[in-house]
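Here we describe the complex-level prediction in full. Unlike the single-chain runs in Section 2.1, the two entities below were treated as one system.
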Amino acid sequence: GENVEQHPSTLSVQEGDSAVIKCTYSDSASNYFPWYKQELGKGPQLIIDIRSNVGEKKDQRIAVTLNKTAKHFSLHITETQPEDSAVYFCAASKAGSARQLTFGSGTQLTVLP
Amino acid sequence: DTEVTQTPKHLVMGMTNKKSLKCEQHMGHRAMYWYKQKAKKPPELMFVYSYEKLSINESVPSRFSPECPNSSLLNLHLHALQPEDSALYLCASSRFDGDYGYTFGSGTRLTVV
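The structure predicted for the assembly as a whole is:
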């Protein structure tokens, strides 16, 4: 089955700096890569996603890049703010198969004021 | 309405109790999911309902019994739980099973004493 590795497990940055979280996946058939943000006491919230036919996607301060050859994808957050502090999960799946949504282990991001 | 609503937010139950968790969405989604999340871990899939029918049971013990009375409502009936079942139980929905995007609820924090 699919295996998703996520690094780092914890990340502290100064407010205004950039943060990068990296994930690798094992199944070359995976074609959908969402990122979820989970704040304390809340459920995961989809913040950005990318499909395998796209190499990069950006939404304001958040961007995701995908390297299909190397089987890795990354989340980039620029101009970080204290409200970006949360746990971030990457995931990988094959379209048409909800069961195959495999999560990474999570990254605790702390933005220091 | 773009939310998945879960009740109760917190639940403490004894090992001999019977309780139920409730999940509701009014987005017209026809796939609904139960996930279990332990502290500092990613969500783990438990059950998938597609068009009100159970389509996936990830080898969950029978003390967890899901029910989907209609397309907007998903229940999880709990009976004779163990302390290790204490976790955050998350409900999610999507337009259909295998759709790209999931919407998660905020979860029910369950403590078994």
